[in-house]
Specification:
Blueprint: H1 3-24, H2 27-34, H3 39-60, H4 63-92, H5 102-147
């Protein structure tokens, strides 16, 4: 087992602790309940996949895996922004001028705003941890090359 993989395990473990604490506090359930766009679910599913790709990169190397992980990191923030825009559209679609009750309008505003904020939050989380893993793997690889 190499040093890069151990660094990956430490960062991945830290992200699992953050996910576990979020679940214990009910944040994961709240996200799954209120995100009408399902982008948050996609982000929660893709994070371990691309984090696992970082693990393979740490163990075996490979330029193609590195490119795939970089592509994910570069575009996950765009996906979060896309979810934010969808959430804002849901908010604007709450029919403020119609015959709806004020409670229905507030519920629609809440779902739209939570979709916007949760997709942004998860995109930042996923992108930050995947990039941190890649950065640490690259840093230790570069350092080992310089030492040799």
């Amino acid at each position: 087992m190499n040093k890069q993989f151990l660094y990956w395990v430490s960062v991945f473990g830290l992200s699992l602790v953050a996910i576990f604490l979020s679940w214990m506090e009910g944040l994961i359930d709240l996200i799954l309940e209120t995100d009408k766009s399902f982008i948050s679910i996609a982000l929660l599913i893709t994070y371990p996949v691309f984090s696992g790709a970082n693990a393979v990169y740490a163990l075996k190397g490979g330029e193609n895996i590195y490119r795939v992980v970089n592509f994910y990191h570069s575009n996950v923030f765009t996906v979060g922004l896309f979810g934010t825009i969808i959430g804002l559209i849901f908010m604007m679609d709450s029919n403020l001028g119609g015959d709806k009750e004020i409670n229905d309008i507030i519920v629609n505003l809440k779902y739209g705003m939570s979709t916007a904020l949760f997709t942004t939050l998860l995109a930042i989380f996923c992108g930050m941890f995947v990039k941190l893993q890649s950065f640490i793997i690259d840093l230790t690889t570069t350092r080992e090359i310089r030492v040799k």
